[in-house]
Amino acid sequence: xxxxxxxxxxxxxxxxxxxxxxxxxxxxxxxxxxxxxxxxxxxxxxxxxxxxxxxxxxxxxxxxxxxxxxxxxxxxxxxxxxxxxxxxxxxxxxxxxxxxxxxxxxxxxxxxxxxxxxxxxxxxxxxxxxxxxxxxxxxxxxxxxxxxxxxxxxxxxxxxxxxxxxxxxxxxxxxx
Length: 176
Description:
Helix 3 (33-47) packs across helix 4 (62-73). The protein is of the alpha/beta class. Helices cover 28% and strands 34% of the residues.
């Protein structure tokens, strides 16, 4: 979609968190009311007729738009968090990263089989965290799953979308 206002307000920080990485900082979009409205409107149009019952927000920047869109759609929000952040019984999925192993957790009672789920995060790059979250959601055997990201990075040889080919419909608001 690459809305002009969103593109103009997205901050890029070179060499963060390490040399050679161009960090896309969505906080500049979150702090601008026009950008929030554009993102929410675009996401609402994508999902208003899909019957979404819960949105899984991935820690932590995914919580922002997951919550805003859930309010607009009238559905629930489920948190996919780093280990030790959820107070009740959890299920977990570990995944490899370029510098080690990480884990995502969700409450064991988060999703029911009759739910239609939208998984949301701010950024799709390598796709590791999103894939682990997708696997967690699949554990619950919901009716259907969709995935959405604000930004998809493809300009640095990253192909996170390829992980989801033939698994789930993936949409993004911006492709860089």
